[in-house]
Amino acid sequence: MQFKTRNFDAADVVLEARDLTVTLPETPGNPAVLKGIDVTIRAGETVCLVGESGSGKSVTSLAIMGLLPDALRVAGGTIRLQGRDLLPLSQAEMRDLRAARVAMIFQEPMTALNPVLRVGDQIMEVMELHTDLSATERRRRAVAIMEQVHLPDVERIFRSYPHQLSGGQRQRIMIAMALVLEPVLLIADEPTTALDVTTQKQILALIDELQKGHGTAVLFITHDMGVVAEIADTVYVMKQGEIVEHGAVETLLRSPQADYTRKLLKAVPSLSPREARPQAADAVLRVERLNKIYGGGGILRKLPQAHAARDVTFALSRGRTLGIVGESGSGKSTVARCIMRLIDPSSGRILLDDADIAGLSRAALRPHRQKLQVVFQDPMRSLNPRWTIGESLIEGPLNYGTSRADAMAEAARLMGVVGLPADALARYPHQFSGGQRQRIAIARAVMMRPDVLVADEAVSALDVSVQAQVLDLLDQLQRDLGIAIVFITHDLRVAAQICDEVIVMQRGAVVEHGPAGEVLAAPAHPYTRALIEAAPGRSWDFQNFRAMPEVRHAEPA
Amino acid sequence: MAQVPQPTSAMQPVLRALRLPHLGAGSKIAALVLAVIVVLTLLAGWIAPHDPLAMNPMARLQGPIEGHPLGTDNFGRDIFSRVLIGGQLSLIIGIATAVVSVLLGLIIGMIAGFFRTADAIIMRAMDALMAIPSILLAIALVALNGPSVGSVIAAITIPEIPRVVRLVRAVVLSAREEPYVEAAIALGTPMRKILVRHLVPNTTAPLIVQGTYILASAILTEAILSFLGAGVSTETPTWGNIMAEGRLFFRIKPELILYPGIALSLCILSINLLGDAARDMLDPRLKKRAG
Q1: Domain holding B260: CATH number?
Q2: CA of A277 vs chain B CAs: smallest distance (Å)
């Protein structure tokens, strides 16, 4: 692992926050969201702020930008930008500073860009507000910065609207907007979280390159330790509004001092694959030449088609986990939804215990539904917000004739299994955290005693430590009940942790299929290799605070 | 965390809307005015000093005199009694229209939102219905069936249905993509149950708001229809046909239009204000859940 080891002691201090305290004055007790934190960022330095959700990372960045929501107040401390105290400044003065001196990029470039303006005009608008450059000069500089962020075909993209660009291109536009006025500080709030790994790698490289070129200080907010290992000079670890530890990246990753940092690093799933479990003779789920084609209808002329899944074939036996890995648009969720029969496959067979369910009608499918359950990505939306947990859990068994009392008793038992109190049954989803809700969703699926569980990005929305707990729960249930799991994920680390077998998908087609150990350690297909290479921090063994043993690569096929 | 909320989940938005202390001053006054109007019209049979149809040619077009606090009309009928009794039918038509159009719209909208094949057909039919001007439809219906309460309700309801259908369909279209609905499908929950138990509750908040607007506009449309002579027969007083009759004597005695007009305006204004209050109260909750 090549860490950044530059020393910034001699560099100018760009931003210095001292004893910064932010509170929630309207909430009873005036709780502190930031409890007197100190952060120093020097010119040319990349400071990573890491922590789980609710740790106060984003509040820190918003406080620096002067963009705190109304409910939050800075209760104490100072924020100095190049020696100038920002807190006493008026809204108008802050507005002048933003973009000109401090710029910010966000997680979701689609919502941060105005959908009805051409992106070129949006870049020019920044200059219009903060400089008195002429229109031609603004345009010249906009094109120049777009070239610097390596956008292809700049003239065309200049005239494009945000929706016509890819996620990576949109984030490049955001970066161009942020840097066009040469700010001294760039705040990047999870800028690559919504992007695919290969795109993430490019964006991280771009930020690095521009930083070197312009000498900008970067405050990079992330929850991803891999990203931290790749780009940080200095790391601040936050927990519940406090900085529990900070230091140079290598020191912090090699010998973390705080318990919390150790816990956080231990929770990072390892990229080295788990030991595969024995394969039973007969498969409980067999998918044969599954195809899903969208579009193609139309009365007068044929509409364009999209081949979302092409000849997907696999077999899965009891007690094993099959991972389907790929980036967005690879068709992995399409496969999951076809198996669940939430959408109808265009062709192919889905054999569940030797019964083909691919073409069954809604009614004929009902008896099979029981054996096939699903856990979705978004724990906020996968439970009906108007129902108590108990109602949600017994919905399935009631459909299949279990009595209410029996179902409730089973639900209470399962609450214990997934580690929630029994009185949770009478409560509503909004009273639980994301991780707890995901456990509830898993319990709901297990209530049906399924043979196959489809987990569609089931841990992607969770913090790493919670992610680890949920993965453990799945593992335990699988051992106890012998469930076969189809695990859809974009995260190779997660796949390595729990999958016996891995399918790699790209643009609807399976490009590689084999035991997890082989596919991840010795990828045969260039795309798999690109995916693994793009996984941030892949050569660092976070859990053991050391470099990964050399991974051997197969020769290119 | 320990407290257990009431398990009246589907009714929560309604209960919340009814919690009066949260209302602003304007909405409180509106609620009071509406309550007074409703009580007065409900008790009209007892309060009204005269038979609203009893003519008295000797006392035509009188100003406020003893026994006739608001005066009399061109047939010598007591205006006060007529406005009170007239309110009954106006409110009945308004409420019936709101209830019928919301219920029908809900059912049709659920089907359109959930079943793709039905959607195309239903929505084209709804587009066609929306293209018919409601006043013209009313005149046509009344011409066919005679000026009955039923045909007036039908005439006002039919053009309102597409609006409700579109609203419900939009809510169902977004709600049925929710993972919890897909999870219910995976749990083998029958379609009927998914519609009723998972999807209908999502429509309550917008429908309460839409219902109040329909109520107000139906009362108004009834008045317009009566005014044009396409409404309920003049033997049964409604605010609309009292005004319609009164317009002939508008120059001599503006009160003939003024009093039913005031009752009508107050009623619609207060219903609309309450509808706005309901919308404001139900909206933040929706926003919070989306965020």
Answers
A1: 1.10.3720.10
A2: 28
